[in-house]
TrEMBL record:
Protein's name according to its UniProt entry: Polymerase nucleotidyl transferase domain-containing protein
Top-level taxon of the source organism: Bacteria
One MF term in the entry's GO annotations: nucleotidyltransferase activity
Pfam family, one: NTP_transf_2
Domain Polymerase nucleotidyl transferase: 20-56
Length: 295
């Protein structure tokens, strides 16, 4: 955790004590963004989710600068240098606790990521913490489904000869577009392996480099998987090769830790991802049942 994170968390706690604790509508406050992740720097805003019940939008503003001396809120676009220097800038995402705790309410994946990895600053009854744990739980079936999907597509996009075929048949634009898709599936694999929900696109790399496990090849050559080092065929081939190495390393890790039981994780993923009757591995059984339909 950066020193700036601790400072800003203390500022948030002070704001909660002064302005929110006495408000019965405030059910909980969760610091998100860099404050929640522990990576805040000097000019980071204080971003937080505020759960409200009843949903009273006049408890706290969505975005403002608070001046404690006279307990007033001001526009973040103020030109008052004193206010900008000494005031406390806050950015609150105000959520209806009753709606968000409804079993029928499905949280978006970025919200699961943001709130689930946040820092709970205020939760007097424990209800907010219990809700977050329930709504952001990453179960085994979700993890395996996402790994299977990514592996099947990556095998199609990166298998031997495929990048060459795409480049020669469709040209560089389509070729790199296919590699963009491959990179996205590699990211899906890394998040799923670590049981983490994918966050907002604008924060994805910041979150990705903080995952507990990443392929060594990503650490060493990740940039060349994201972008081509040149716009010619050699740059394209190098990009495809880097992603193939990352996939190979991740497949090896999945076999080592027992997530995939067979020596052919691609085949295992494909079969599990296409379990319906009439596939190559069950065609005999399908044929028998096909012929038995009229009996």
């Amino acid at each position: 955790m950066t020193p700036e994170t601790q400072l800003k968390r203390n500022q948030l706690l002070h704001f909660i004590r002064v302005k929110m604790e006495s408000e019965s509508a405030v059910k909980g406050v969760v610091a998100v963004g860099s404050i929640g992740a522990g990576t805040a720097h000097e000019d980071s805003d204080i971003d937080a989710v505020v759960f409200l019940d009843p949903y009273d939008l006049y408890v706290v503003p969505a975005e403002a600068i608070w001046r404690e001396e006279d307990d007033t809120f001001h526009s973040i676009f103020t030109s008052d240098e004193s206010l900008l220097k000494h005031g406390l800038q806050v950015d609150f995402n105000r959520l209806n606790f009753k709606e968000w705790s409804d079993p029928a309410c499905s949280w978006t994946e970025p919200m699961k990521s943001e709130i689930g990895s946040g820092w709970i600053a205020f939760d007097p009854t424990g209800d907010v913490g219990r809700l977050i744990r329930h709504k952001t739980f990453y179960d085994n079936s979700t993890r395996l489904k996402r790994l299977d999907e990514a592996i099947v597509w990556l095998d199609q996009l990166l298998n031997e000869g495929e990048p060459d075929r795409v480049w020669n048949t469709y040209g560089p634009m389509v070729g790199h577009d296919r590699l963009n898709a491959a990179y996205d599936y590699l990211v899906q694999m890394m998040f799923a392996y670590n049981r983490k929900w994918r966050t907002w696109k604008t924060r994805e790399m910041t979150t990705l480099v903080q995952l507990p496990w990443r392929p060594r090849s990503f650490e060493e050559h990740g940039l060349s998987a994201i972008v081509s080092m040149s716009d010619d065929y050699e740059g394209y081939k190098a990009r495809a090769y880097t992603m193939s190495r990352m996939l190979e390393e991740m497949l090896g890790q999945l076999m080592v830790d027992g997530t995939y039981q067979s020596a052919d994780p691609v085949g295992e993923a494909f079969i599990r991802n296409h379990e319906e009757p009439g596939r190559a591995w069950n065609i005999r059984d399908w044929m028998q049942k096909h012929n038995d339909r009229g009996n």
